[in-house]
Amino acid sequence: MIPHKTLKLSVKSLRDFAKKQLPDEKLRELDEKDECPVDIVRQMCNPDQLAVQLLFVPEEYGGLGGGAFDVYCICEEMARVDLGVATSVLATFLGSDPIFVGATPEQKNLWLRRIAEEGILFAYGATEPDAGSDLGALRTTADPVMEDGKVVGYRINGLKQWISNGGIADAYTILANTPQGPSWFIVERGAKGFSHDKPEDKHGIRLSNTSALALSDVFVTPDRLVGGVEGQGLIQAQAVFGYTRVMVAAFGLGAGWAALDRAIPYAAKRIQGGGPLSEKQGYTHKLIVPNVVRLEAARAYIEETAERIDGEVEIHAGKFNTEGAIAKYMATEAGNKAAEDSIQALGGYGYTHDYMVEKISRDVRITVIYEGTSEIMEMTISRDRWQLHLKTRGQHYHEQAQKLEALHARHPNVGADAAALALHALAEVMERARVARLTRFQHILLRLGELIAYAESAGSLSARAARLAENTLNEKASRRFDAPALAAIARVFARQAADKVAGEGLRWVVGAGGLGEGEMAAFEARLGMPAIRRAQAGLVADMDYVADVLYNRVAKRTTAQAAVPAGA
Ligand SMILES: Cc1cc2nc3c(=O)[nH]c(=O)nc-3n(C[C@H](O)[C@H](O)[C@H](O)COP(=O)(O)OP(=O)(O)OC[C@H]3O[C@@H](n4cnc5c(N)ncnc54)[C@H](O)[C@@H]3O)c2cc1C
Asked: Cβ(124) to ligand 1 under 6 A?
């Protein structure tokens, strides 16, 4: 981890660099021309210029050794500038990940040092035309070349698809099948038999180079096999998901806020129906406030996960895959919705290129696809937490709910009571799914993944609001909202989560035939439906308060009006 002062300096340098090198007109022009600004990406990764890559590289290899929290902060900031350029920088980090996790000390010293000191760009070559979400279907092969009974190298053959930096990287990590199973190899640009296709003509992130790769009898020496042992590739890829998904989560968060930060001031100036749109409740409470709330719920989960990763002795323990999946799922879905609603918030202007929200909306779309699609995230979340449900005989989420009830006793204003209702309801939905064997339906399994993500995020956000009130929040954490505002945001989200878990949980349980007609009323009571409905009291007042905070109107309202606790 780096000192807070260093992080602040890095963020400031990044902002200054972006202001100078990537103003809106330049971004629009590059987007229109479908062009990756390779020079700018190289300047960002140049040790003598912006040197943003140093944050990702451990100190022992010449980097700054940033932790997950630092990396989240920088990724959010990069995404606010442009997701295509951010993807290009991230690709070096993803590409070098197998090295970070699984390489020999000599390999690490060579390649990580080259990233830090020479600023070389990497690409991460896992996906193939027929192997996307299912990397097990990998077809690229790496056949050992033998001499005198010894492996003297490998010949790699195959195709890679959708590779970020595919056409511009200096080095590539390529996943290929060896006799012992999938393994990572390092292939340098210009290797004989190695080529890339023209850049893809994409919907968004048009400033990022994405190209297919072809490997035809590409020869590499044994020191290019990451870790020197065959068959470790999928384990190495899995090992970093917790960490890398937090980064893509930060991309969703940054892009979502970038869009909202255009919509919010726009609404204060745009006069319709005799006054600014920011004064219209039907506008703010549909297009602005719910997006702020969802993004901040995702932020809470990202920060909690990043802190937990940083608390581990070994960062890349692969331990937080499910938490990374929840963070990515919540933040990228929230980012997409925020960008989409920002177009609506700007009306016809939003639909044009000039106002940027349309570009952000196209760009952020990738975050629910790469590094694991939202559907794969739902599956990952659901499978893991299902095991936890079984292992604890259905008690896991009841126990989490009790912790939030205890938090509510200490902090009655942060929505922890409603978050607890969401978690109790979740435990009941999962238990009913177990009894009625509903996870045999894939759709139910994946919908549970969504409900789990919402309920857990509600808990995180309430806890974050409490920490802010107690002044124990991470010093590097965003302080855009003060304690009363974050508490109101947490109350709005917790109510939504409780309503969603119980309402949609009931819908899917009944829809999949998991409940008889005569059992309905009793199950609704077990879900805590009456309490969840009562907890919605004060919702509109809290949304008013959040809108007032966003538009600096708080001083004009009385505190009594503003701070109505959940369930009051
Ligand atoms: C711009 C861009 C940049 C990228 N950069 C890289 C990179 O640098 N390196 C790299 O290796 N890859 C990269 N990718 C690839 C990306 O990770 C994959 O596109 C992604 O994992 C999905 O794989 P796929 O496209 O083959 O879709 P598929 O796996 O075919 O999925 C299609 C749809 O089916 C759903 N689906 C898939 N499996 C299941 C299932 N079992 N049950 C239910 N639904 C399912 C998916 O959620 C999705 O909605 C990039 C992709 C893009 C578009």
From this structure: yes
